[in-house]
Specification:
Blueprint lengths: L14 H12 L7 E6 L5 E3 L6 H5 L16 E4 L6 H4 L3 H16 L7 H16 L20 H5 L5 H14 L5 H12 L8 E6 L5 E6 L3 E5 L9 E4 L3 E7 L2 E6 L8 E5 L5 H17 L6 H99 L5 H59 L8 H6 L7 H31 L9 H12 L3 H8 L4 H9 L2
Antiparallel strand pairs: 1-2, 1-3, 4-5, 4-10, 5-6, 6-7, 8-9, 9-10
Helix pairs in contact: 4-8, 5-7, 5-8, 5-13, 10-11, 10-13
């Protein structure tokens, strides 16, 4: 139940007045699909009669228990289903109500759904409720698996809630960009292909008193064996039925055949549900005929309004999508530029540090150069003294051979010392030249880094404080919106074509964890249909083939 509405009724309010109150409150105009269901004193559930007072109907029944009429609970439900939900449902509220009921019917197992299809439908339900999947904000364990999947499906596999959530999440992430309305439509488009979708079943008997099930839907009347509600054994389309009548438990379906012996006759097993069964047959037959005549002015207006709203919504979606793309591009460029600026600032800081070290080195070298110059001066002085001594010695007579050798050795030592001083002076001069070059390079690198930083600041002044208004200012006008809508529809078609392949992959992945003992009777029947390659509509086509007379005879022989 999505919401609970409360109304104050008087003793004179009819079912039609209550129905109108509900429709006005929720803004529903496609009211012909819905009705109000209630439970009488005997706990039978019925559709509220529009032309009778509500109080009288709720007080009906054979039970002797007193009725408390101060608080009455009724359900506003889908009574009739369309042949194609994507083409016939006009209003968003109509589609939403269908979505809620079909989702609940699947989870409560009133509609059989295969495990892999259940996971796919659950992902669309999550998309409709929470919007686009975001890995940053998604909280593990936030999906309530029991409210998304049938309990029999959960019991059939050796899987934890986390494992179910992971499989749903994979599909959920794939639905990014779908609005709530689009997700609900995709959900219904898949659900309408389920074998039990749109059926209302009743227990009946044929003329031979054999128990069978009657399935009433938008396409016609379908006869099922009691143990198999998935595959009918014979069908009668509304196009070959003229009208339906009933007296007590006997129902007579008049066909278009001239021979009255070709009419279909069956008997209900419970008088209490005769009126409900007759209303469903009559209502579905009427809607079937109305679909094949031109729309009324009201329906044409509703369709035109819905189309306009859909186009406006798609235009708004396209505009927002374009703005998000532009914002994403700008944010990415901003991140790149900020990263680059930070990198340049780091390079500049390193350059400044190298420059500081170079300046310190130059200062030390300058001091060292002064010392070297002083040492060179002393060495030059000593060298001059040595040369003077050598000249003096050469001019002095040498008395002995030993003194001559000593003098020669002193001269050699003085020459060697002078040579070493010269070499050392040249090396120190080269080292100073190298350090001066390094200093010049460091200054040039600092100047280049400063120029880069200045140019980046001039090209991207908005990076220091970009606002949403400035980003929005860059958004261009939306064009070719119809083309965008067509592209979106094409995307939906491509997604639909890939669903079957994805379902097969999911089924093969889950089969390894299946517990065969937990399979239900409907699971086995469904697997048999899949192995035969039969779809819902292929089966209906087969069961409706042949003449009306032959199918009536087949039914009577069941």
């Amino acid at each position: 139940m999505e919401a609970e509405l409360k109304f104050h009724l008087s003793d004179k309010n009819t079912g039609q007045e209550l129905f109108d109150m509900v429709c006005r409150t929720i803004g529903l105009r496609e009211h012909w699909y819905f009705d109000i269901e209630f439970q009488d004193r005997d706990h039978y559930r019925f559709w509220l009669k529009r032309n009778k007072k509500v109080i009288d109907q709720l007080s009906a029944g054979k039970s002797s228990q007193p009725v408390q009429l101060t608080h009455i609970h009724c359900s506003f439900l889908v009574k009739f289903y369309p042949e194609d939900v994507s083409e016939e449902l006009i209003q968003d509220i109509t589609q939403h109500l269908f979505f809620l009921q079909v989702k609940q019917d699947i989870v409560s197992e009133h509609i059989y759904c295969a495990p892999e299809a259940s996971v796919l439908l659950a992902s669309y339900a999550v998309q409709a409720k929470f919007g686009d999947y975001d890995d940053k904000t998604f909280i593990p364990g936030s999906l309530q698996i029991e409210s998304l999947l049938p309990q029999t499906v959960i019991d059939q596999y050796q899987m934890t809630s986390e494992m179910w959530e992971e499989r749903i999440k994979i599909w959920y992430a794939d639905h990014k960009g779908l609005s709530r309305e689009d997700a609900e439509k995709e959900f219904l488009k898949i659900a309408q292909d389920l074998e039990m979708f749109g059926y209302c079943y009743f227990h009946i008997k044929n003329a031979r008193n054999s128990d069978v099930s009657l399935g009433v839907n938008s396409l016609g009347l379908h006869i099922f064996k009691p143990e198999n509600k998935l595959v009918p054994v014979v069908s009668f389309a509304w196009s070959e039925i003229s009208h339906i009548a009933h007296t007590d438990k006997k129902f007579k379906v008049k066909t278009l055949e001239r021979n009255h012996s070709d009419d279909l006759t069956f008997f209900s097993r419970d008088l209490q549900v005769n009126n409900s069964m007759f209303e469903l047959c009559q209502g579905n037959h009427l809607l079937y005929k109305q679909r094949r005549i031109p729309d009324t002015l009201e329906v044409q207006q509703m369709k035109a309004q819905a189309k306009e709203q859909r186009i406006n919504r798609q235009q708004e979606k396209a505009r927002l999508h374009k703005e998000q793309e532009l914002r994403s591009i700008l944010e990415h460029e901003k991140e790149v530029m900020v990263t680059r600026i930070n990198q340049l600032e780091l390079e500049l800081e390193l350059t400044r540090e190298n420059l500081r070290r170079s300046e310190e080195t130059v200062e030390l070298l300058g001091q060292k150069s002064d010392l070297i110059e002083q040492e060179n001066q002393l060495l030059r002085e000593k060298s001059a003294e040595a040369e003077a001594e050598m000249g003096r010695v050469k001019n002095t007579a040498i008395k002995t051979e030993e003194e001559k050798l000593v003098v020669e050795q002193r001269a050699k030592d003085a020459e060697l010392l002078a040579s070493r001083i010269l070499e050392d002076s040249e090396q120190r001069a080269q080292e100073m030249e190298r350090l001066i070059q390094e200093l010049e390079k460091a200054k040039e690198a600092e100047l280049i880094a400063k120029k880069k930083l200045t140019s980046m600041a001039n090209l991207y002044p908005q990076l220091s404080g970009a606002t949403d208004a400035e980003i929005d200012y860059l958004t261009t006008d939306m064009t070719q919106l119809k083309l965008a809508v067509e592209q979106e529809n094409l995307t939906f078609m491509e997604r639909s074509e890939s669903i079957q392949a994805q379902l097969k992959n999911l089924k093969s992945d889950m089969d390894m964890l299946k517990v065969e003992d937990k399979l239900t009777h409907l699971d086995r029947l469904h697997d048999e249909n899949v192995q035969r390659g039969d779809t819902k509509y292929q089966t209906l086509q087969k069961t409706a083939s042949g003449s009306t007379k032959s199918r009536v005879a087949f039914f009577e022989e069941l």
